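Notes from hallway chat w/ T.B., transcribed later so I don't forget. T.B. wanted the structure written out for a chain they're using in a teaching module, and asked if we could keep both sequence and structure tokens in one place. Agreed to drop them here.
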Amino acid sequence: MATFNVPTREQVSANNQAIFDNLEKAVGFVPNLYATYAHSENALANYLNLSNAKTSLSNKEKEVVNLIVSEVNDCQYCKAAHTAIAKMNGFNDDQILELRSGSASFNAKYDALVRLAQNITENRGAADQDFVDRFLDAGYTKENLIDTIVLIGDKTISNYLHKVTQVPVDFPVAPELATV
């Protein structure tokens, strides 16, 4: 099995070194998964452009999607990272676990969002019309629907990258969901 190292700043291109420097300033460190993108000359910049692109979704709504997509795809890295980011965006531990389980009893709008994102992810892009209708009935727009699909794709890219490379998780491990 091929192993993937986490490249250091000295091991990446000048363009990626500049991105590492910006990440260091903004986040305080270069997350291992981001560093792994730097095995490619262009992937890190391309991914960050996609991930940081303007969207009609709020930061909290983005974390709703990131949490459920990472759970469905069983990405240990992204579950850990987005648990930490969701906390920074105001979600508590119980809410995060509930979102990862595919519901949000504490917010009807988030509930429609998490259920739709889960349905799309589980069905590899197909959505049951009932979930789309509930999403729109909850007050979301067609723009929000398109932005949700783009965000699912964004998170799926990182989920797949980690599943293939298995680079070490450098965020606190996300708790396992209770099995029913």
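Follow-up for T.B.: The chain has two domains: 9-51, 59-164. Might be a good example for the class.
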